[in-house]
Amino acid sequence: MLLIDDAVDTATLVARVRRDLATDGCSVVPDFAGPELRDALRAEGVAAAPHAYYDVETVNVYNTAPDPSLPPGHPAHRTTERGNAFVARDALPAGSVLERLYTDPAFLRFVADCFGLERVHPLADPLSGLVLNVVTPGRGHPWHFDTNEFTVSLLTQEPDDGGVFEYCPNIRTAGAENVDDVRAALEGRFPSRRLALRPGDLQLFAGRYSLHRVTPVTGATARHSAIFAYSERPGVVGTVARTRQLFGRVTPAHRAAEARVRVDRLMD
Ligand SMILES: O=C(O)CCC(=O)C(=O)O
Ligand SMILES: [Fe+2]
Predict the structure, then answer these.
(1) pLDDT of 9 strictly over 60
(2) Which of 22, 21, 65, 262 is nearest to 147 (CA)?
(3) For ligand 1, what atom is nearest to the CA of residue 227?
(4) Is the CA virtual torsion 89, 95, 97, 101 positive or negative?
(5) Which residues form the Fe2OG dioxygenase domain (predicted)?
(6) What per-residue confidence (pLDDT) applies to 4?
(7) In angstroms, how far apart are the furthest CA atoms of the chain?
(8) Who contacts 41 (Cβ-Cβ below 8 Å, separation ≥6)?
(9) If you measure from the C-alpha of residue 244 to the centroid of ligand 1, how many angstroms do you get, rounded to a whole number?
(10) How far apart are CA 4 and CA 22, in angstroms?
(11) CATH number of the domain residue 237 falls in
(12) Count of domains forming the chain
């Protein structure tokens, strides 16, 4: 097993994560990666970061195009600049700890158990399944919902200051957008939580229902986090449009597969 030590009482850990996810949509396993792995992960992030695709994009929390037909005051009208940048999976070296962890069968089992799923699969997407999220000083990752129902992430480098993960637990559901609450959150009038993440901490998060952001990074050090995306169905590939936005390019696999997994009718 990679990273998951046989000595770890996985059943107890999974039970705790499931409780956290049920109540908050989020759970953190502190020190998931021990000191030696932390150094390797940090080095992998630092080596990969120059490959990040920078394009300051104007986005709303749903990552949707402007829609004048929505009523005035709808949170979709409110836009900000997305200042973070992603390194695509294919820019990480083969055999990296991140790549091995992402596809490790024991880790897949652990993730599936934590989210109460029969199985999870690494995405078939050559770019977006495993990414490094790079937030350089002065930039942040603004409030948004994820397209994926759940993600797993691992902080590989901590900023000197700022760069805090903040979220509004389960502010929307599969059946209800709750736009009044979302608007209140964007105006700082809705309860949120802040996570004090340290390098090596594993975060399991239901990001489709919990509005979240990374506050602007200050100081000299960039914030790096590895984001692991999984799907319940094998073969999931992102859309051409979204892939181009995130990485500035697409692959033949994206052109070949414009269909994608949808489990609800929420805005993107
Ligand atoms: O980097 C993080 O901790 C959060 C990233 C995130 O929310 C995302 O990539 O959708
Ligand atoms: Fe997110």
Answers:
(1) yes
(2) 262
(3) 9
(4) positive
(5) 125-234
(6) 64
(7) 56
(8) 33, 97, 98, 154, 156, 199, 200, 226
(9) 18
(10) 23
(11) 2.60.120.620
(12) 1
Which ipTM was obtained for this model? 0.98
Task: Decide if 193 is inside a domain.
Answer: yes
Residue 182 lies in a domain: yes
Q: Which two tokens stand for residue 23?
A: 């109540």
**Any domain includes 67:** yes
> For the chain, how big is the Rg over CA atoms in Å?
18
Question: What separation, in Å, do the N-terminal and C-terminal C-alpha atoms of the chain show?
Answer: 36
CA-135 nearest atom, ligand 1? 1
Mean pLDDT of 210-230: 97
User: Model confidence over 75-124: pLDDT tens digits?
Assistant: 999 998 888 999 999 999 889 999 999 999 999 999 999 999 999 999 99
217 close to 223: Cβ distance less than 8 angstroms = yes
Rounded Cα–Cα distance for residues 24 and 172 (Å): 12
Residue 83's domain comprises 10-256
Contacts with 37 (C-beta within 8 Å, 6 or more apart), sequence order: 3, 97, 200
pLDDT tens sequence across 126-183: 999 999 999 999 999 999 999 888 999 999 999 999 999 999 999 999 999 999 999 9
Query: Which residue owns the Cα nearest ligand 1 atom 2?
Result: 225
Query: Which residues are CB-contacts of 95 (< 8 A; sequence separation ≥ 6)?
Result: none
Whether 266 maps to a domain, the answer reads no
Write the CB contacts of 158 (distance below 8 Å, at least 6 apart in sequence).
197, 198, 199, 221, 223
pLDDT of res. 5: 67
Conformational region of residue 39, where left means phi above 0, alpha means psi within -120 to 50, and beta covers everything else: alpha
Task: Give the number of whichever ligand sits closest to the CA of residue 215.
Answer: 1
